[in-house]
Amino acid sequence: MQEKIDKYTAEIKAFAATKADELEAFRIKFLGTKGIIKDLFDQFKTVGPEEKRTFGKVLNQFKQLAEEKYSELKEASANTADTATADIDKTLPGDGFELGSRHPLTLVRNEIIDVFKRLGFVVAEGPEIEDDWHNFSALNFPEEHPARDMQDTFFIKKNSGTDDIALRTHTSSVQVRMMENGKPPFRAIMPGRVYRNEAISARAHCFFHQVEGLYVDENVSFADLKQTLYHFVQELYGEGTKVRFRPSYFPFTEPSAEMDVSCTICKGSGCNMCKYSGWVEILGCGMVDPNVLENCGIDSKKYTGFAFGMGIERITNLKYVIRDLRLFSENDVRFLKQFQSEII
Ligand code: 2NL
């Protein structure tokens, strides 16, 4: 018995497994229910009292040695691991993760919305697929108006003129729906995507984004329009930005105007953003044509209103000096990640 113990003690001391299956074989051989230690203890039961005294201690020490060896190797293998994880260099820095960023059009749209919200305007949205009435007829477009033409409008269904279904060409259709379904006063802005059947280039796209605004109440005047839009420009481009109004024409407003701001890049001294004029056009506006109010069921003798519309792309180009409209829809991350990241 002593001989066996000596032999196994040497074997245990020399054992240095690194693989999990070798370690498991060790456990089964020495510590298993049919293992060597169990066997030795069984033999121990049969020896005389004299031998029991000497072997009792030796056997317990032997058992302890085997158990200690096993737990020591088990712990070591858990730390270094014996499989593929052994190849991982834990001193390397972890993978970073990048935050996304807001699309520049979203940033500018939100800025525009915020200014008007502070003035008490609400935000309204509507469908991108519209019927002729909401996109054209209610807005005083004559039957033969060129804007209805196939070249400008994406028609989904050509029925009989007034029954046509098309992608909306402006968000004015949302204002028509609002006026038809409610009662004045109205004070709302309508952001959204609109579509025009145009060839894509640096300066034109088949879709773009608009914010339109509408204010209808008793005694609303052109002075209210001018003051509201002047305030908007001070908020958006900073105090001291100049504005000027030029007469214009839209079927749905009378009188109509276009509004320019002093060039935000060169402050009016002349640069290629403003084509050396010192002024940049940013929106169209006017007093809502009485015909439009009547078409929407509003008494044009009692109520007047102003409306305006602007392209978000144009405002964004001016703010960030972007010269190619295609950048907005190509989703090139090198372009997108230059804008404010999302802060959660
Ligand atoms: C532009 C010009 C404009 C409007 C939009 C409007 C809507 C209703 C009644 C009257 Cl329901 N007007 N909207 C008015 C003037 C100009 O947009 O250049 N947009 C990009």
UniProtKB/TrEMBL annotation:
Reactions catalysed, as given in the entry: tRNA(Phe) + L-phenylalanine + ATP = L-phenylalanyl-tRNA(Phe) + AMP + diphosphate + H(+)
Domain Aminoacyl-transfer RNA synthetases class-II family profile as annotated: residue spans: 108-318
CDD domains: PheRS_alpha_core
Residues given in the record as Mg(2+) binding sites: E254
Pfam families (alphabetical): Phe_tRNA-synt_N (PF02912), tRNA-synt_2d (PF01409)
GO biological process: phenylalanyl-tRNA aminoacylation
Record's subcellular location: Cytoplasm
Cofactor dependency: Mg(2+)
UniProt KW Metal-binding keyword: yes
Entry keyword set: Aminoacyl-tRNA synthetase, ATP-binding, Cytoplasm, Ligase, Magnesium, Metal-binding, Nucleotide-binding, Protein biosynthesis
Presence of the UniProt keyword Aminoacyl-tRNA synthetase in the record: yes
HAMAP family associated with the record: Phe_tRNA_synth_alpha1
Assembly information from the UniProt record: Tetramer of two alpha and two beta subunits.
Protein name: Phenylalanine--tRNA ligase alpha subunit
Lineage: Bacteria, Pseudomonadati, Bacteroidota, Sphingobacteriia, Sphingobacteriales
